[in-house]
Design a protein that fits this description.
Structural class: alpha+beta
Distance between the termini: 54 Å
Largest sheet: 4 strands, antiparallel
CATH topology of the largest domain: TolA/TonB C-terminal domain
Strand order of the largest sheet: 3-2-7-8
CATH architecture of the largest domain: 2-Layer Sandwich
Shape: elongated
Radius of gyration: 33 Å
Number of domains: 4
Number of strands: 31
CATH class of the largest domain: Alpha Beta
Number of helices: 9
Length: 459
């Protein structure tokens, strides 16, 4: 009984508070709405003085003036864009320079803006008995049209040396800001078909110039996306397939074979690599009309780890699909992949450091700055787990070499083996800014967790 009374009192108190708040609100004037985005608005207007020389010559005309409104609402710069006669120019500019504005807003903050205005000189104005306080609506100043940034000169990117034997085409999508000088700033890799293309694409972007975006007289920074495309000169589709140990299976008749586009190398099982052991694995799969792989089947493997590594890689591959008479068709492919230690290069150097008696590779502590990723691809949810999808995770240890490439990923732990290989395959394509320690590029060992969520069903 006591509990029930307390609850009713609580309701009564709540109703009283609600009523009081409503009364208080009714007594207060509504708060003014604040715009997040708005163009500069005219506050103080001065009518242009009709030039005496134009009066005597009975000249009329319309002058277009472009100008810039600063953060303080004053006109910072004004120029004639179009004029029927120079006799009007100085009077038009003098008037515009005397105007004041409420500055433009972006995200509720004042910003500099480019404006334009038509100024009309008509002899009938001289007979007006009373000067207007504002111009008529069609003659009000307004924001100038924003002209986007445009490419000015773009060099051909250098094809990466490490992919020359494989001859695969590639692409890197980069997002960046074009500054007022037309130079790209703050590049961010949005997507890359292969890690080897990333550095070459960023180097090409550094040499690319643009015509900056402008709003009337005002140049403005602008965000753009730029696709850097790579092609091995003269390589034909059959040659690219052969170079990557890919062969067509079955009787599908094509006039244009599929072209490997995303072709990640299988992760070399680290224990076998450190031991200098070679191996092979063979798989068959379908390249569907969208270019994705499906029905990936392991045919043979000299060790289970080689087969698991190949399956995880093939599931992440993508192709330009095959076609016949202009129609995209699915085709069956076979891949035979050989795992063999390489001599020379960064991977060989890192393997030597990790072997017994080697120098080892330290962690990231003591670096001059935090590790900064340039490109991190997402792992593909394993096909073997899609019938009864589950959540999962994997812990991957890998090396970021002195060039910023992720190397030698190793599965430390995984809730399922498939998650481990999928995570390691994705991480093998990551790219970072070069790790720097005491001003020198260094190799560092890092370890990260990767989580998997079941893929959303296709609608």
């Amino acid at each position: 009984m006591t509990s029930s009374i307390v609850q009713r009192r609580g309701v009564a108190v709540a109703l009283i508070c609600l009523f009081s708040c409503c009364v208080l609100s009714a007594q207060q004037p509504p708060a003014p709405l604040q715009a997040d985005f708005d163009e500069a608005r005219l506050r103080d207007w001065v009518q242009p003085t009709y030039p005496e020389a134009a009066q005597k010559a009975k000249l009329e005309g319309q002058v277009i003036v472009d100008f810039v409104v600063g953060l303080d609402g004053k006109v910072a710069r004004a120029e004639i864009k179009d004029s029927p006669n120079p006799v009007f120019n100085e009077a038009a500019l003098a008037a515009v320079r005397a105007w004041t504005f409420s500055p433009a807003l972006e995200e509720a903050k004042p910003v500099v803006s480019g404006m334009t205005v038509p100024i009309v000189f008509q002899l009938a104005q001289l007979k007006q008995k009373q000067v207007s306080l504002r111009p008529p609506e069609p003659l009000l100043p307004h924001a100038a049209k924003l002209v986007p940034a445009k490419f000015s000169a773009a060099p051909d990117p250098d094809y990466p040396t490490e992919l020359e034997e494989r001859k695969i085409p590639g692409e890197v999508q980069i997002e960046f800001t074009v500054d007022a000088e037309g130079l790209p700033r703050k590049p961010r890799v949005v997507w890359a078909s292969h890690a080897a293309f990333v550095e070459a694409a960023l180097r090409a972007l550094e040499k690319t110039t643009f015509t900056p975006a402008h709003q009337g007289l005002l140049t403005k920074p602008m965000t753009m996306q730029y696709p850097v495309e790579f092609e091995f000169l003269g390589a034909k589709r059959p040659e690219i397939l052969e170079a990557n140990q890919l062969t067509l299976v079955g009787e599908a008749k094509t006039k244009a074979e599929p072209v490997p586009f995303v072709l990640i190398e299988p992760v070399y099982p680290l224990e076998h690599l450190l031991a200098g052991e070679e191996g092979t694995a063979t798989a068959e799969f379908t390249v569907e009309t969208r270019g994705n792989t499906a029905n990936v089947t392991l045919v043979s493997a000299s060790a289970p780890e080689y087969g698991a590594a190949l399956l995880a890689a093939v599931e992440a591959w993508g192709f330009k699909p095959a076609s016949s008479d202009g129609v995209k068709i699915p085709v069956q492919l076979r891949v035979v992949y050989g795992f063999a230690p390489k001599t020379g290069g960064n991977v060989f150097r890192l393997v030597e450091a990790l072997r017994p008696g080697g120098s080892g590779i330290a962690g990231p502590s003591g670096l001059d700055q935090k590790l900064k990723p340039l490109w991190r691809g997402f792992p593909v949810y394993p096909a073997a787990l899609r019938e009864e999808p589950i959540e999962g995770s994997a812990e991957i240890e890998f090396i970021i070499d002195r060039d910023g490439r992720a190397r030698l990923p190793r599965v430390k732990s995984a809730t399922n083996d498939e998650f481990g290989w999928a995570a390691a395959t994705a991480i093998s394509q990551w790219v970072f800014e070069r790790p720097i320690k005491k001003g020198e590029s260094v190799d560092v060992t890092v370890s990260i967790p990767v989580k998997f969520a079941p893929p959303k069903p296709k609608s």
